[in-house]
Amino acid sequence: MSYTAEILGVGTELLLGNIANTDAQMISEGLSALGINVYFHTVVGDNPPRLKSAVDIARSRADIIITTGGLGPTCDDLTKQVLAEAFGKKLIFHEPTAERIRSYFKNSIRTNNMTENNLQQAMLPEGCEIFENAWGTAPGCAFESGGKHVLMLPGPPMECRSMFINCAIPYLRRLSSEAIVSRAIRIFGIGESAVEDKLRDMMVSMSNPTLAPYAKEGEVMLRVTAKADNEELAVAMMEPVIARVRDIIGDRIYGIDVDTLENTVFDLLKEQQMTVATAESCTGGLLAKRLTDIPGSSAVFKGSVVAYASEIKNQVLGVPKTILEEHGAVSRPVAIAMAASVRRMMGADLAVAITGVAGPAKDERDNPVGTVFVALSAGGRHWCRALHLGADRSRIRIMSANHALDMIRRYLTGVEILPE
Amino acid sequence: MSYTAEILGVGTELLLGNIANTDAQMISEGLSALGINVYFHTVVGDNPPRLKSAVDIARSRADIIITTGGLGPTCDDLTKQVLAEAFGKKLIFHEPTAERIRSYFKNSIRTNNMTENNLQQAMLPEGCEIFENAWGTAPGCAFESGGKHVLMLPGPPMECRSMFINCAIPYLRRLSSEAIVSRAIRIFGIGESAVEDKLRDMMVSMSNPTLAPYAKEGEVMLRVTAKADNEELAVAMMEPVIARVRDIIGDRIYGIDVDTLENTVFDLLKEQQMTVATAESCTGGLLAKRLTDIPGSSAVFKGSVVAYASEIKNQVLGVPKTILEEHGAVSRPVAIAMAASVRRMMGADLAVAITGVAGPAKDERDNPVGTVFVALSAGGRHWCRALHLGADRSRIRIMSANHALDMIRRYLTGVEILPE
């Protein structure tokens, strides 16, 4: 059977607009990979009658209710109480959880001490399965009642994510005798509609596994999902589908079940013990920022020169004035010179450089907004892409960085660096 | 009277987890500034019966329904049809809107041509107020029916935001004979609970205007909201409150009704015709990235050296080896030397430098994760903050950049650079 789930975000801060409901996004993505249909998200404040009314609506239209938030130690945190009462479950003191909370406070350097309120978190619905919290004190839990499944997760995104992956997904997998397995094929360098065009016949003719494309920021994700009696079988069923997608999309696939383009590049660099440096103009440090978002990036990333003002390209990066004057700062020769120079300066194995017009106005040579050159310098050679990325500043910057990462990825995997 | 609103996000991509519901966050923040209570958010897919059921629930518990999404030209986009039918309104062809759509296609460089579907967007509920779309073809609209107000906005965040600000807010303001005005006091350098402690007596004793603190990422926002017969009066009522908050919080207030810390710094630099450069280690380009997020930043930002590997601090920034060896890369003398050096290299009026341990591990000198030094070099002098920012990598990086921006802001406004 196919389950439906509703995600119920609990927290007044969501209704005030202090934060976006990223928990619901993360959980939805996970449920879609499990083949569970999500038809509604609801957000409600820390208000018991309104929370109760939202729970009543959710149970009338979904098999599984997943709450996020309201599990903390303050008197506002009432999710457990309201949900337990709604489903006729008592809250019972759970000594092992209390012990875990006590030792959490004993072992961590915290300015605030444990209060009796913290032990309230050890009150849990009778007969529930307890989800341990790897990042905080609030445990989550799950129970079944009258054919409905209730899962409660904490609100802080780090806690919610880790508990969802480590506890909720295994719980949900056990609901079904079928194994549903899904894989994510990550693609850069071709738009969603072009991917759809190429794969339409294949997608339409398939029912198990299924194949569906999703547009991500500047890239495309293809989700393959298979149902079978067991996991091995489901995994095996996906193999020929993935092989066929590889044939059709080719080296624009940068990874399967990987995180991001920058993580893929990081892994490749680390594997090959190579280092990288960047020289950035219009991206203004965004590429370096993305590479250093990754814990452990110091093993592969040397540094960057952000040469935002034109004269810095000469004064700091040493791009010859003659080249800058002849071709302008936004040009192929300048991008190549920037890459070669930053590679030398930083003593890196390879380097990328980005120079372009992110707007709001054309540059002094009348290059329209969106004109960008991305160069790679490696192994004594160089390559350069000339791009036209539209008029949106933020998109121009993200896509420019994506292209730089894609060129590194292609170099390190030995596929054509300038396709088409 | 005080209105309640429900925000109804329409779009299957939200339920699949492809995007977060940032429209609901943006609108919630705006409604809270208008004194309109938001008790629920709902997200539903592009499915007419389920959308209809969500509309029925929303109308039973809110005075105002604001939908986002589902106004596009594809056959999936059914928000207008479902809402109009639910409230007994016919859809009527609106020639001026059709003309606007035709000319949009005529005047813009697009690869896709206008189709008959695009003209579907000119079908609008009878008697509605039309909201023009500054960024796309889909118009929004608002109507009243049976005491309920329905507002429909497009889903893409840029279109939604601009239509909400330019069309929906004025519509909502007119619903009330009272003027509700609100101002945002932006604070950096003191936590939310400390702000609450200092202002508690004041907050508790006030009912109009009201004063409420909100935690933002690494900073605090105080919202002052006043109701009065007219806007002038409401604005005047807030003056003494703002003055008193200024007395209590002092120069930790970095702006009122401003965007972000980096925008505040950008405005100050531009006003004073000063330029800035940055040298970054653990932030890895994040500060440069944030400064160059701002269109027009080239007027004030020269560039940055991201010296992520230790040797780059010497080889590129010229920090003497003796200093690096004696004090270690994460130290006050190195931060100061980095700032002074990048200021000279880039010919900037002022420079900031950040060096620290963002984790995952301690550095080789046993500095714990979260140890960060932020230095400012300006006018032949220098200042340095020593910070301990906890263990979360992302927070360490954001807070380090915030501190650097705060030091620049303090220098340019002539207040103490190292308070406390």
UniProtKB/TrEMBL annotation, chains A, B:
Pfam families: CinA, CinA_KH, MoCF_biosynth. InterPro entries: CinA (IPR050101), CinA-like_C (IPR036653), CinA_C (IPR008136), CinA_KH (IPR041424), Competence-induced_CinA (IPR008135), MoaB/Mog-like_dom_sf (IPR036425), MoaB/Mog_dom (IPR001453). SUPFAM superfamilies: CinA-like (SSF142433), Molybdenum cofactor biosynthesis proteins (SSF53218). Residues 6-174 form the MoaB/Mog domain. Belongs to the CinA family. This is Putative competence-damage inducible protein.
